[in-house]
Design goal:
Layout (H helix, E strand, L loop, with lengths): L9 H10 L2 E3 L3 E7 L4 E4 L7 H17 L1 H4 L3 E7 L8 H14 L4 H5 L2
Parallel strand pairs: 3-4
Antiparallel strand pairs: 1-2, 2-4
């Protein structure tokens, strides 16, 4: 199993933020930009202590891992936690994640080939 490529450097995050292509709901904000399929997760201390923040990160990483084939490697994605993500289970986070990515048309290229 291949590890998930992560955005690590501030310059990588800044490049995606500058594209200004974002969508949000009550739980998540998602930014996307053309890239090599990396994932960045941002969760501030407003969401909770380190246990809560790391749990959120694990849930988002798992949702990304399960749907990586559908996403392809065409976009770099940043997922930002909102206050509504606090205390949510995996299925709620996954549903929010997938809904926002569909609204971003990230799945579009793969759906056309089916």
């Amino acid at each position: 199993m291949r590890n998930i490529d992560s955005l690590k450097k501030e310059a990588e995050f800044r490049r995606i933020y500058e594209v200004h292509d974002s969508l949000a709901d009550s739980k998540l904000v998602i930014y996307k930009a053309p890239g090599s399929g990396k994932l960045g997760i941002v969760c501030s201390k407003k969401i909770g202590n380190s246990v809560v923040r790391h749990r959120f990160s694990r849930l988002v990483r798992e949702a990304y891992r399960l749907h990586r084939e559908e996403l392809g490697n065409q976009y770099d994605i940043i997922v930002i936690a909102r206050e509504g993500a606090k205390g949510q289970g995996f299925f709620e986070i996954e549903r929010s994640f997938l809904t926002l990515l569909k609204r971003h048309s990230v799945f579009q290229a793969n759906e056309e080939s089916k």
